Amino acid sequence: MSYKNRKNKKSIVNQLKYWLGWVQTVLLGSLRKVERKENKVRLPQTRTIMQWLRERAKIIRLNNLKINEWVDDYIDDCVRNGREITLLTQLCISKDLEVRYQKQSNAFVPTKQERQLFEKEIPQIVEALQKNGIRFNWWMTYNRSYLNSGRLEPDLENKFKQMISQLAEPFLKQGWLIVADWEDEIICKRPEPNQEVLRDIGKFISSSALSVEVKRHSSWAREEAGLDQTDEELRRDVYFQIACEAEEALTLFQTFGEFILVPLEVPERYVFFYTLVPNLQKQIMAVLKPYPWRLNSNG
What is the model's pTM? Predict the structure, then answer.
């Protein structure tokens, strides 16, 4: 066989190999796509509840954080395996409640939004979960400020807790709502900062993000909480708080394992929780109106 014929034969063989390889790649790719699609086929009740929750998230606030598919997978897995899903809502107890107490004539009277939270918003979510046969536990924790300057007097703290307990009483009797103090009953200590983050905060947080947070915290401290602090004191407080939030994210996973975070603050307030646990953002489901305890937004 001449060199030319051998070359032509080799060329034909190579072309056949190429096309066979291409066909194999396409077929395998298609099979993998089908496999991935099949793995993503969720139970009807999962699809129904997630569609409802996403519609709800859209109307809570403009440009609200979209619900990540992690939530779909988590709920679907729990339903398939007969487990209860875990929901977590944190109630912030800090110095601005003292200002509210004074404005309400030395008493804690439920705001319009607090009443709606317990009389309308939570019941609607619970009804949707139960209607779709999804079993759940809903934890609501009282979370004190990380900062000494932001802590409420024990007497006022107890009065606020009593008001919340009265609003939540019907749910507590049903057994699916668990209200607990984060420090005293769950972690049994005062939250501490992550030392690595605190030592070198610039390694973890950009200077622009730090600047924005210092400005936000300064506004809250002086205008809402009525604190009298220097710029340097406020800056140190912000760094300490960020390190505490980074550490708390780790503690949340150690305490609850997998859970859905249903915040009563805007999701952006959790950005520093992602410092050491970036996947936490996937677990946020912002379906409650934020800051129900504020007088200026509820009247």
Answer: 0.83
